[in-house]
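Run log, item B.
One chain of 177 residues. Sequence copied directly from the ordering sheet:
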Amino acid sequence: MHKLQEAIDDGTQETDEDLWDSFIERFKTAFTNQNQKEEAYQKLCKLKQGESLDDFFAKFKQLAHEAGVPLDDKGTIETLKRAMNEPLTRAVIQSPDFNPNADIPWTFKQWEDQARMSHQKWLAASQYSRQKQGKTRTVQSLWTKAKPREKQPVWKKQNFWTTHHLPRRICHGGRRQ
């Protein structure tokens, strides 16, 4: 505020756009989070892939940009590998085009493209196997581990008592039907 008043006292017009632009820039610098890059980097290191591959890559790119980290940097690629679900990372590494001993390592774009391709292949295979088995359930996300179904105790299953172990007269209140 002091520099703004000095500029006006020195003869700069109060309506001068450059004066106000520089004031706004100094104001933002003074009152914005100075640790924004470090916080973005910490979030990037903790990021894990969820169900949506699109959301994951968008968030990864955003945090890398905010942290000032180049996407093709070796450390960024290692962070990407750790952030992706393990089966997807393995699928990318096992793809025919991937060569871990190549002179030029894969770029972020190559990793992203191959991850998307692997995901699409998995979706197609899942769709085919579900159709073949006659199941019409919605396909879950590729690289999230499905929670194992809890087995229901045999005695809780519908009609267990009436169809398996107890005499008919006990199941229906002692009456025959």
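Observations after the first pass:
- Confidence is low (pLDDT under 50) at residues 136-142, 160-173.
- DSSP finds nine helices and no strands in the chain.
Flagged for discussion on Thursday.
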